[in-house]
Amino acid sequence: xxxxxxxxxxxxxxxxxxxxxxxxxxxxxxxxxxxxxxxxxxxxxxxxxxxxxxxxxxxxxxxxxxxxxxxxxxxxxxxxxxxxxxxxxxxxxxxxxxxxxxxxxxxxxxxxxxxxxxxxxxxxxxxxxxxxxxxxxxxxxxxxxxxxxxxxxxxxxxxxxxxxxxxxxxxxxxxxxxxxxxxxxxxxxxxxxxxxxxxxxxxxxxxxxxxxxxxxxxxxxxxxxxxxxxxxxxxxxxxxxxxxxxxxxxxxxxxxxxxxxxxxxxxxxxxxxxxxxxxxxxxxxxxxxxxxxxxxxxxxxxxxxxxxxxxxxxxxxxxxxxxxxxxxxxxxxxxxxxxxxxxxxxxxxxxxxxxxxxxxxxxxxxxxxxxxxxxxxxxxxxxxxxxxxxxxxxxxxxxxxxxxxxxxxxxxxxxxxxxxxxxxxxxxxxxxxxxxxxxxxxxxxxxxxxxxxxxxxxxxxxxxxxxxxxxxxxxxxxxxxxxxxxxxxxxxxxxxxxxxxxxxxxxxxxxxxxxxxxxxxxxxxxxxxxxxxxxxxxxxxxxxxxxxxxxxxxxxxxxx
Length: 560
Hints:
single chain; about 550 residues; alpha+beta; Alpha-Beta Plaits; 3 domains; five-stranded antiparallel beta sheet; 14 strands
């Protein structure tokens, strides 16, 4: 063991990777339906290994933290700027009220209980599940005109308070929003969701596993219905009961014909029809008998993700898009917004930056992709020129200081990386020809970047963690619980009774404003609907910015 301990002290990079390994292992453990999560797991692992008094350069954690913040901004940038539009103002108002209440609650309890600046910042970060506050508040504390030892002690107190209040805050909100939130509004989630029922987005995918339930299918039918004889392809597809069914190919005798709009169909022609599964089941026999014709059905079908960048289509409903000429033969299988599945229904609206997964014949999909925006084809390459310049420019912006009254405020270099991530994320959605970061790379930058940062914070705080926890632990449990629930209670009441928002959207917005994805899933499970996700993305974007910015603001207010 002494050999291992010496190796970790002499080569701290080994301690970092050991922290990540143990942290992810802790994060996988489940206690009933609750788990600590990998972020808290890495913090606890860092604290444990940090008892060996391991020294890690603070610049290492800053690099990972900047990468994480830039990626966070990149993901939510399109929705952040969309929030400036009029139709998103109620969600923005709710988010601002909730986030300001978060700041004031943390400040009030810190003053009443005489917490130091580090403990107050940890309370804000943990109770509101915003790990980025650890970094931005820590950088702000480093700028305070205090002795080095005192600044170090304050920074080490941040993860102590964070660990306690995060567990309490997250667990309570995952229960509070779906269970108590509806009672505050006097509604039943399942009843409300049933009244607003829409087709839900596709279920989460697992590598190598697909659903046996196919949303779309291509089948062959022999025309036997006399009402269809001598009709053109265009006439059949325009019938009121066609319900977006398209003829992809026709067999006439031994010949295979392409579906020109003016092609007249005859008795005993065999047609390949693409439609939703339920259309085939309910109405297929109105054409005639289904037949097996592999040669007729040998049609190249493409599934493609498309980033919506066409300004003319921003805000359009799916029903409007379905009527467009370019949508002929193309179906939507999934709608993603800021990494969250959106419900798919006739009235669902698309925003610039959304990712639409479309499926259909190869030429039709390519035609639709050209009209919608930019085809986001799978690739493993990341535009590191885009990422590198983004973080560099963000750092320059973040280092600027603004004096409000007598209080100097700065975003810090890390906060600037977040802001520039927003700008670059929006640029990517508007001009998706550059700046691509594939999903696996986003996971590395986002998840691993945050966990590396948190793990190194734990390593540095390890020696003082136990003594700090014993000093403030019990009071922080109660304070963390109240601090987490009070702002969300105010947010729910404000959204429902002042802004008159839909209850499902209110709960989704509260989960987004508090940046608690687990709470969104809990609300969706309780409602048995994905509709709450419609209220999640804009507040999530705004909440990330405000709560991250509160780190330096809280430090400045506590210093007065």
